[in-house]
Amino acid sequence: MKDEGLRAGSPEWEIGQLLSALRRNARYLSAIGLHTQGMTVAQSEQLFRDALADPGNARQQALRGTYDPAYLNYTLGKLMILQLRNDWMAANPKASLRDFHDAFLSYSGPVPLVRKLMLGNDSPPL
After folding, report:
1. pTM (2 d.p.)
2. Domain total for the chain?
3. Tens-digit pLDDT string for the chain (126 aa)
4. Residue 38 backbone zone (phi > 0: left; psi -120 to 50: alpha; other: beta)
5. Which residue segment(s) compose the domain that 101 sits in?
6. Residue 66 contacts residue 41 (beta carbons within 8 Å)
7. Residue 111 in domain
8. The last residue of a domain, from among 46, 67, 88
9. DSSP label at 5?
């Protein structure tokens, strides 16, 4: 909706969007760091503090990362859908964003499966 101009010119809304994205990105990095890179809870907590979380929320998010590695899924899904959108729009140059969204929402299932359905079985994996 933002790409189509929703609340264009509203700095409060833009800052809110950026802050939410920053926190989701911190979850993404924290989940990967805690479960595959040897990140400590203290390092994760600092990551959330760097992402402008208050101390209590930073601690809670860091601890959540120890038992909920899937909390990175929101950002991972967003990245996968944006890549699918870019690839689909390149393959359909006369299509609009609405055309993409209508096509995407006509399917149900994991994004990699929807990607194959929308682009064909020979599309490169994500």
Report:
1. 0.81
2. 2
3. 777 778 888 899 999 999 999 999 999 999 999 999 999 999 999 999 999 999 999 999 999 999 997 889 999 999 999 999 999 999 999 999 999 999 999 999 999 999 999 998 776 666
4. left
5. 74-119
6. yes
7. yes
8. 67
9. T
Alpha-carbon span 101 to 119, nearest angstrom: 14
Q: What is the C-alpha to C-alpha distance for residues 24 and 61, in angstroms, rounded to an integer?
A: 10
Same domain, 6 and 61: yes
Query: Distance (Å, rounded) from C-alpha 24 to C-alpha 30?
Result: 10
Q: Which amino acid is at 47?
A: L
Q: What is the pLDDT of residue 104?
A: 97
CA 20 to chain CA mean position, Å? 11
Residue at token pair 């994004």: 111
125: in domain: no
Residue 87 makes CB contacts below 8 A (sequence gap 6+) with 115, 119, 123
